[in-house]
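can u do me a favor
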């Protein structure tokens, strides 16, 4: 995985790095990178790890409601954790699932 350690650089440096990424990588590539390297907490780094941990399934076999739960965790890993805050996790998962249903019908 590529890593970029930016410390004490100017705003121009951030702009240049951002422009480089925008011109050399697609949105799908950026999303795949983020999901594969994101720390979902509880020793689960990457979407494959969290999928196995929560559902004992590969990412390709997840149902839409399960994907919604993963994205709820991606949004806020502590607040939307089913073990720490089950009511909030269920509520946010349902909101994301309803959004998925609304957009898939268009």
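np, heres the sequence
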């Amino acid at each position: 995985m590529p890593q970029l350690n930016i410390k004490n650089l100017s705003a121009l440096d951030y702009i240049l790095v951002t422009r480089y990424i925008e011109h050399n990588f697609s949105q799908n590539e950026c999303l795949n990178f983020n999901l594969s390297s994101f720390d979902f907490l509880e020793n689960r780094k990457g979407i494959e790890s969290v999928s196995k941990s929560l559902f004992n399934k590969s990412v390709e076999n997840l149902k839409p409601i399960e994907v919604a739960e993963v994205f709820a965790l991606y949004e806020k890993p502590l607040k939307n954790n089913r073990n720490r805050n089950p009511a909030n996790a269920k509520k946010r998962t349902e909101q994301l699932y309803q959004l998925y249903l609304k957009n898939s019908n268009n």
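DSSP finds five helices and no strands in the chain. hope that helps!!
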